[in-house]
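Many introductory courses stop at the sequence. We go one step further.
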Amino acid sequence: MKLVLKAVPQSGRNDLAYFTGKPYVILDLDQAPESSDTCTFSLYNDQLWLMFSAKTGDKLVKQKDNRFVVVVNKSDIWIPGHYFLLFRNGDTIHRFDLQLDEQGAFSQQSVTQCTPLSDEDILSGALLEHGSWSYLSRTPGLMQWKRWLITRLQERKLNTLRAENLHPILAFCNNLLLASPSDDYFSRNVTLLKYLAQIKCEYENADCRKLYDPSRANPYEKLEEVFSNQSSYDKVLNMDLPVMKDRLYCFNHIWALFEPGWEYVLKKLVSHCPRCYDSVIFCGTQEDIDRLLERVPSLQSYFPQRNRLTVEPYALDDIIRLFFHEVEEARLQFSPEATDAACRLLTQRFHQGTIRQWTLTDIRHYIRGEILPAYTRRAIAAIQHGTAPKEVLEVIPEDLG
């Protein structure tokens, strides 16, 4: 089995370590696959960032006997480092570990056949089936979330196996504590986490700031609405008995629970969830979560350590890839030299520790507050001095500051 992977620079230049380009994959198998209809290809970096995925039947996948050729249309920024490609044929999964060097060449480190319920099984199977995984995989700072998600899907597959063999399914804990520097970080990602983890229950999202309003005749009206639909009634032996529905409650802005007058709200939340028939997610800063557990020590037992997830500082890969995503959003076009120079500058600053705490807001400020004005001033001045307009359309290294 032999794999050749190339990232072809969009500019045609091969003398730059960092470049934008399209991947090109050639895979030669020892023999033709039994069923090529089920073959998939997926490439990840070491942050579980899904670079691309393809499958037989796509226009970009060509097969002749035991050879596959995959050309991906989407361009991406290629950063020297570790990558791995997963090739799946039915239930057989192979992992190719690859290293991209400073000259832009991939070398194969190893190839291994992966077992059922392995991380590679989940990444090339259950997760790859969901288009939403691509978005979550490309969200920086969520490595803990991705690891939790893989583990949860392994547990789900184990339960499927138990059910097929007439064993009772295991009840897993869905209670989560999600810490982030920003209160507004979670809504879309939490919904995706619930969807991708296949947590089969109703979803209730609540803003803690709105659960108590002293200006209303009933200041707890919103709080009562949150729990009003948690049970329905059914006739059993001509008696009305409550039938509990599994629900997932997600509470954000939990700092409001510690404000004066909110003691009843906190007590009500704790008395309702978590309980055996529903699950709860509390979202806030790490300081808010620590305060919550200190205020209500009994909650500690509901949240296993592995279910306490935090948004981590961005890795260097995250910063560079997010930087070029925002460059595209700002409608800027970088020259090949500027792409390489920007990556080297960000790498240098990252290792110096000056951008390790950067978030999306900081990246946007750098692009729109520094690079864009510098480029605009230079372009206008050049045109005024007689330079042809088409020669100043790209950002150059001098614009980076």
